[in-house]
Amino acid sequence: MKRIAVMISGKGSNLQSxxxxxxxxxxxxxxxxxxxxxxxxxxxxxxxxxxxxxxxMPLEVVETGGGDRSAYDRKLADLxxxxxxxxxxxAGWMLILGTDFLDRFPNRVINLHPAMPGAFPxxxxxxxxxxxxxxxxxxxxxVMVHYVIPEVDAGPVVTMEPVPIYPDxxxxxxxxxxxxxxHNLIVAAVDxxxxxxx
Length: 198
Ligand code: GRF
Known about the structure:
By secondary structure, the chain is of the alpha/beta class. The chain contains seven helices and seven strands. The chain has a seven-stranded mixed sheet. Helix 1 packs across helix 7 (171-196).
């Protein structure tokens, strides 16, 4: 059984989707570890309820020791590598990972981003897409899963799916629609990538 490590920073609804699809037999994988950079992330609770090992590594662990980001990335990579994952899945992980982390898992780190490739990199991508729609700049948004490179929300695309925006939508309507698409796309993407691994 292929092992995945899931990295989160918040609610963990995409983690939950992975947990549920594995439990239903739709996804052949085992979540070996859930890592959060925030101790108050609700996703931690979801992992514990599913009996999955959890680790919390706030950025402060190195900052207080005077360490820099690369020190954090190395420490984080050691933690994740100890779980021996075939694939690392960033599902709402909100810190940028550098080469000190990525080089430890070459072509084995994927990220979920609630926008189409090249669009709205960074945070609040759904709200920014909504505003761009209101200004008439875009007709739709989307969701993508991509391999991670040391650049925000960029890297070769694994899969993507457009998401329509309707004139009478509120931003909450759009958020809900995007998250629904995410919950299925993250499962499909993990399945696709795991099938490519030896
Ligand atoms: C998702 O919209 C993801 O695309 C973005 O952060 C959000 C995390 O949601 N990077 P959740 O924590 O999985 O509910």
